[in-house]
């Protein structure tokens, strides 16, 4: 089981909008001692959305899905989720009640004809795959929905992010900080990755449960100073006590290879 996110919308792939959901999901998970295992971007294409959801429904993963749950012609996610599950769509009674409350709250003097054509259309936002549960929307009451460990929410960050937090704290509090984790790294100068590879392999062999990572950079001009030089961000991550020991060995190994080390304060 892992956490994943599917971000749906042509506007992301065309560059009309910049995705903010991926970094926020990482942030929300990290604050709870959890991590994102994978992410996918999909345009507003029914065939592809349905195929992707069929695949992820067959997994044990916990999946956030953002975008495409409205009631306009370019919103397909609700229909695709139902098709992927092979179940019909139906108006969720609690979703209908919440949408009705929102219609009345925003109507002049609180008077609204719920049977008016435009209001009947709004109820389509509460039409979910059969058997779905709702996700409350603290922004405007129009709910998202969940089914089979998949959590569907609007593309608007102001709505989606509180929904993500609600899901994590309501359904997965038992997973918070369940696995102790630490990550430590330093910058290496004057050594190529090829020279570091045997050391990295030895660390992973000698310290069970520790993973070594290597992120080369041609120089980060934006941050200037020492970061502007070509370097490698080299580190280890895993169980805290093992990470501490592996980090010491990794650091000593780089020194023996003649590498220059810089340890950022973090």
Automatic annotation (TrEMBL):
Record the organism.
Mycetohabitans endofungorum
Q: Which residues form the signal peptide?
A: none
Q: Which residues cross the membrane?
A: none
Superkingdom of the organism of origin = Bacteria
SUPFAM superfamilies per the record? Molybdenum cofactor biosynthesis proteins (SSF53218)
Q: Which Pfam families match?
A: MoCF_biosynth
Do you know which InterPro entries this protein is assigned to?
Answer: CinA (IPR050101), MoaB/Mog-like_dom_sf (IPR036425), MoaB/Mog_dom (IPR001453)
Q: What is this protein called?
A: Molybdopterin-biosynthesis enzyme MoeA-like protein
Please list the residue ranges annotated as the MoaB/Mog domain. 4-175
């Amino acid at each position: 089981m892992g956490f994943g996110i599917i971000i749906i919308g042509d506007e992301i792939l065309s560059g009309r909008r910049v995705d903010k959901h991926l970094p926020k999901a990482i942030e929300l998970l990290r604050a709870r001692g959890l991590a994102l295992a994978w992410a996918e971007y999909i345009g507003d294409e029914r065939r592809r959305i349905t195929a992707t959801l069929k695949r992820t429904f067959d997994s044990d993963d916990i999946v956030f899905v953002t975008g495409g749950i409205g009631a306009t012609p370019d919103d397909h996610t609700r229909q695709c989720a139902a098709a992927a599950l092979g179940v019909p769509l139906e108006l969720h009674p609690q979703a209908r009640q919440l949408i009705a409350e929102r219609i009345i709250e925003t109507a002049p003097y609180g008077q609204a004809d719920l049977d008016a054509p435009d209001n009947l259309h709004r109820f389509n936002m509460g039409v979910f795959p059969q058997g779905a549960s709702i996700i409350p929307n603290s922004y405007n009451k129009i709910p998202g929905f969940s089914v089979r460990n998949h959590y569907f929410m609007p593309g608007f960050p102001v709505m989606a992010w509180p929904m993500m937090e609600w899901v994590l704290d309501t359904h997965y509090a038992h997973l918070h900080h369940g696995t102790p984790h630490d990550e430590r790294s330093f910058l290496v100068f004057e050594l190529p990755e090829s020279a570091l590879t045997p050391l990295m392999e030895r660390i992973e062999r000698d310290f069970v449960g520790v993973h070594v990572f290597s992120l080369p950079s041609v120089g980060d001009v934006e941050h200037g100073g020492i970061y502007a030089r070509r370097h490698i961000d080299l580190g280890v991550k895993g169980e805290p006590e093992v990470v501490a020991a592996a980090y010491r060995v990794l650091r000593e190994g780089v020194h023996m290879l003649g590498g220059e080390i810089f340890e950022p304060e973090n």
